[in-house]
Amino acid sequence: MNIFKSIKRNLIKRSVIQSILEKEQHNNDVINIHRIDKKNIGDFYCAPHHYFDVLKGKSLDIFDYKSEDKEVRNHFINEISERSLIVGGGGLLNRDGFVMQMKMFEKLTTKGKKIVLWGVGHNEKSPKTYGKVSKYNIDINKFGLVGTRDYNMPGEYVPCVSCMHPIFDQKFEVKNEVGVVFHKDTLKKESITKKYQNFATSSNTTNLEDLIAFIGSSDNIITDSYHTMYWAMLMEKKVIAIPNSSKFYDFKHQPIISTFDESLHHLNKGTTYDGLLEECRATNIKFAEKAFNYLNL
Description:
globular; 5-stranded parallel sheet; Rossmann fold; alpha/beta
């Protein structure tokens, strides 16, 4: 992005946020805000509007505030201002791309806005922070109800709601000892992908059905995708995670943490967790009841 486009986009973002903060706020019905990216199925499926009838059709992309389309921006302004908000899931905390929006939501809590944080978590890029994050970049105590996917952090523990997808009730025949799932950014790094050219591979850019079938057909999963890690654990696979963010270090049940250079040395050493799918679903159903009561849905 050239400097002029960057300046223009920053002006757009600040203008949208200022417009929202200056508007009168209401709590008419609800909208579920998260990163709606069909090229990253973890981001796409990590929101409760996919799984609860009362939220069906009520979603908004958290990146719409910087759209070049004025109608999209105005829709964002109006939806945020008119509705109660469910924010999440996904790695929306401690991440540069979401700081302005999350700080705005924090400010809206002082204007009577009902906001639920559902399954959000920290997502710091710097390896210096891995396993060391101790606070969020917003004050979660200001929000009406908070469930975070980070087990050792403040807030009620609520793992990603994508566990509610019925696809996890399917059974698959194991065909591969090892399945490697690359994050979409890693696909561009031939130095990494070439190391695994003799193994079955996929990525988080494929569709959910194909990815879950791929995970199901593998005994060990090597991945640098958070949601692939999570879904593989739900499916009782032996998981070797390659962290690209702080988010990998705060799940309730830790996978083996490794690197792309060392991961094959850890095959068949991972722990599987019987009943994890049911546990995560029960936690989300319990949280949903509280959220819907709070939001009067």
